[in-house]
Amino acid sequence: MNEQLYQASLKALTSNGVPEDLAIKASRVVASDDASLPNFGRTPEDQEIAKQVVTYLNARWEEE
Questions:
Q1: Are 30 and 10 within 8 A, CB to CB?
Q2: What 3-state DSSP class applies to 19?
Q3: Shortest CA distance to 9 belongs to which of 26, 33, 34?
Q4: 1, 30, 31, 46: most buried, per Cβ within 10 A?
Q5: How far is 39 from 61, CA to CA, in rounded Å?
Q6: Which among 31, 35, 61 is positioned nearest to 46, based on CA atoms?
Q7: Is the pLDDT of residue 64 over 90?
C-alpha cells in the first residue's frame, strides 16, 4: 500500500464531504491499486467501494 497516496486520497475525499468511513475504505483501495493488473487488481468489493464514492460525489455536486 502506498501510504502517501492513501493520505492524499483520504484528505481529498474527506475535504469533499465523503463520510470518513467510506473515504478510509476507498483510500485503501486506491493506495493498493496495481496498474499492471486488470481493474487495477481490485476485487468486486473494492470496485463497489469506488462506485459508492463516485455516486456520493455526483449526488453532492448536483446539489451545489
A1: no
A2: coil
A3: 26
A4: 30
A5: 26
A6: 31
A7: no
Amino acid at 35: A
Q: Which of 58, 54, 59 is nearest to 26 (CA)?
A: 54
Number of neighbours of residue 23 by Cβ within 10 angstroms: 21
Helix (H, G, I), strand (E, B) or coil at 1: coil
> How many alpha carbons fall within 13 Å on the CB side of residue 6?
9
Cα(44)–Cα(23) distance, rounded to whole angstroms?
Answer: 17
Asked whether 57 and 34 are in contact (CB, 8 A), the reply is no
pLDDT in tens, 31-41: 999 999 999 99
pTM of structure: 0.86
